[in-house]
Amino acid sequence: MKIKILLICLILLNILNADENPFQSEQNLSIITPPNFQKDEVKFNSNARILKSVTFNYINLDGSENAITLDINKSIDWHDTYIITRQNNPNPSKILDVSVTIPEKNDLSAESNVSLDLELPEQTGKIYDFIAYTTYKNKIKLNTNDEIISDFSIGNPSKIIVDFKSNAIALTKNIRLNHSLFKRIDFGSHKGYYRLVIYLDGKYNYNIQKDSSGYLISLQ
């Protein structure tokens, strides 16, 4: 009797599970996808000088994450805006192989085209008779016969302080500059020297070179 009851229970279980498909595959994972990427912009702070690498983190179909890192190692200008943009792959098209022979000709004008690396000044002015300035893209020339006795920079944005040996006494001046990098020059007299404070638009290193007409300050 017990055996019959057990057989009946097994038959009922088989009937209840008959609609299940033993070959049914696992369900696909559903990933909520955001809108298609088009482009994005990146701005760096004034300390940035070299772009070392760019890393892209992405999600796979199965939900796992991976990353691709591009080595760049190129100099950058922090004033610029850098853009990451999407580019669609063009549809493949047939390329016609057409050979064209172009006759040679003497181009006399090519010899006369000479590229001159000249940097034009952006602003020139005189502070006093004994010192004047000229600004360039990332340089400022100080025309003077006086000797620099000290120089240093402070702050962020940077201010370059330059002291010149002199017994000249003159009134304090504040000169506004129409320049993207150099913003202002302050002049002040002290006992035995006068001081220039050059205000910049960001954080910079600098170097000073002396020549026959004064000093050239280059930003880095």
Automatic annotation (TrEMBL):
It holds the Pfam family AMIN. This is AMIN domain-containing protein. Residues 136-218 form the AMIN domain. It comes from the Bacteria. The keyword Phosphoprotein does not apply. The keyword Signal applies. InterPro entries: AMIN_dom. It comes from Campylobacter cuniculorum. Keywords: Signal. Residues 1-18 form the signal peptide.
